[in-house]
Amino acid sequence: MSTDLPPTIGGDTAEIVFPWKVPITIDGVESEIRGELLWFPGVNPVGPVLVGAVALLATLVWRRRHVRPLAEIASASGAFIVLVAITRYAATPATDRGLPTEAIFPIVAVMLAVGVLWIGTNARNSWLLLGVAGLALIWWAVGAADTLTAPVLPSALPTFVERAAVSLSAWMGLALAGISAYEFATGRRVHATV
Among residues 101, 45, 77, which one has the least CA distance to residue 174? Predict the structure, then answer.
């Protein structure tokens, strides 16, 4: 199908592009299948982006050289994003489904954040792992960015949840990468607890 809109379509509400019918014969009985091609406008991404910006609250719990609170928040939000990525994969028709590569970057981010909780106080390694976890979340969000404005999502999740997860991934990734780059560059010893 063309990505160009028919000249009669536009606005901010769903519209019928055209009705269609397909004649069929089943066991010698003629019939037809009828339907309508619908057009849905794009979605304004402001709501999910604002919800995802809540991830920036992670910077409020960050105190210089304290890595554990950020690693805990990154682990929890990353686990939520993994669930969304796996649900997106499961909603893909089996004929189009390949390897579950969509969930790889969020899974890597969770593993790295949990690794930070495990290794504890090694400053440079902790911030490096959190920074890479942030980059993995950003990478997934960029790959799923069309979710923010797509009018219809092929998913079993509520659309707002999926859009919020993409936004959360982007904001959390930016926060983790930025804070980690700063802390890694300063090279000071990290405190494992709050």
Answer: 77
Instruction: Judge whether 36 and 141 are in contact, CB under 8 Å.
Output: no
Helix (H, G, I), strand (E, B) or coil at 35: strand
Three-state DSSP at 36 gives: strand
Q: Which residues pair with 15 in a beta bridge?
A: 39
Q: What is the pLDDT of residues 42-77, one digit of tens each?
A: 777 787 888 777 767 766 666 666 788 888 888 988
pLDDT tens, position by position, 180-191: 888 878 875 555
Phi (first) and psi of residue 66, to 5 degrees: -105, 105
In the structure encoding, which two tokens stand for residue 135, read together?
Answer: 């980059």
- Left if phi > 0, otherwise alpha if psi is -120 to 50, otherwise beta: which for 132? alpha
176: number of Cβ within 10 Å = 34
